[in-house]
Amino acid sequence: MFNWLAEKYIDNKLISKAIKNLQVEFSPEHKKSLEHAVGLAYYFYAQSENESAKKIAETMSIFLFNGNYDYWTWIESALALHARIARIEGDIETHKKLVDIIWGAFEIGDETKQRINKKIFIRTLKGGDIGFDKVTACMEDGDTISEVNYRFSCLRKMILIREVGASETYPIEQAEKDIEDNI
């Protein structure tokens, strides 16, 4: 997968360098490489390069939840992006499978841990912690780099919310509008 991307983006020095780094370090046990891979996938998605975004997301979609949410947050973001692209392409079966994997992470661990983690996730679906306020603050401060970083963070959260079903307080339609407004 990374070889295919390296060939496709050989003329783009910045992307080519990021891909080369991932070729060396990418692993489900290497949190920073998961973060970089997700960042690159979402960058491609924001640039309407869905094929490239999908290649990375598909690769990460094979990683299963190991009980560590520090790693899972990046894999979950890749699963959500993969689900979104699958849905847009009309592959509802793949979309459902990926959403089931995301929800399945809450079946791991003892009952108390499951309940707490599911409660946190459901709170996320309400959209309260997306981070629009941070984007606005960066815009007001003229901090373009932080603004872009927060926009990507918001995009990851909105896509996750939208693809797993959203909530009454933050419905799918609002998530979809916010995604389009923030790309």
List keywords for this structure.
mainly alpha; 2 domains; 183 residues
Architecture blueprint of SSEs:
Blueprint: H1 2-8, H2 13-25, H3 31-46, H4 50-60, H5 69-88, H6 92-104, H7 111-125, H8 132-141, H9 144-164, H10 172-182
Give the terminus-to-terminus CA distance.
Answer: 25 Å
C-alpha-based Rg, rounded:
16 Å
What percent of residues are in strands? under 5%
Major sheet summary line: none
- SSE order, one letter for each helix or strand: HHHHHHHHHH
Number of helices: 10
Q: Stretches where pLDDT falls below 50 for ≥5 residues?
A: none
What do the pLDDT scores average to?
A: 89
Q: In total, how many beta strands?
A: 0
Helix content bin: over 70%
What is the number of domains?
2
The secondary-structure class comes to mainly alpha
Shape: globular
